[in-house]
Amino acid sequence: MTMQLSSPKNPFLQIVRRAVKTGRPTETGLVAIEGPHLVAESLRGTSRWSLEQILTTTAGRERYADLLRNAPAEIIEVSAKAFQSVAGTGTSQEILALLRPKTWLWEEVTGAAGVVVVLDGIQDPGNAGTIVRSAEAFDAAGVVFLEGCARVANGKLLRATAGSIFRIPFLEGIGRKDLAEMTRRQLRLYALAADGRVPVTQADFGRPCALAVGSEGSGVSDEVLAFAQTVAVPSVKVDSLNAAVACSIALFEAAKQRRKR
Question: Which domains are present in the chain?
């Protein structure tokens, strides 16, 4: 089914524009993604999100004909002017989609083998998205976004995940006190810190565990540290690493340990 819209003032386009600009879901819970790469990733068989609508232009329908041909979604054709009014990127690629994220449960995020990654105060969406991508790359069990982190619907975060967010289990907006749930599930919690007690190479990532990473400015919060043992990524000539870099190195070490078991 195809709709055609030409006015930037169209009520539906205003809803999409608001979702893109604010980095939040629509009132009905749909998340906007932009660009052919993310749309293609959402169509992969391993994606757990539901693709509901695709917006594109006449030129976009021709350019992405192969991508759109088997897309299980409503195609909405938008004039070039109207599309530009909703696009969140400076150079529009003339394709945007609305998806419904899967709702994950605690047991799905923490029950699988692999490290659970806990984002504590990571407000930079690029860092948060990179961590999600590394979590999938190094076979983490899932990702927990604590309150105050960048939102999953943020466009920059979505692009930084390169599609990993469509596949990896995650929880969003979790209170720090709710981390007691991990204790009940017998997960040991490690926290990355520049002055951590032990290097990541000496942490036991082979057992059920979680890894908390905080913002570069504040680090892991005291509330989370109360549950955790601190670990560090040893470095020379610099005092600390970018949060996403440090987390990625720790996840690589965790994956290496688990492969040896």
Answer: 2-100 (3.30.1330.30), 106-260 (3.40.1280.10)
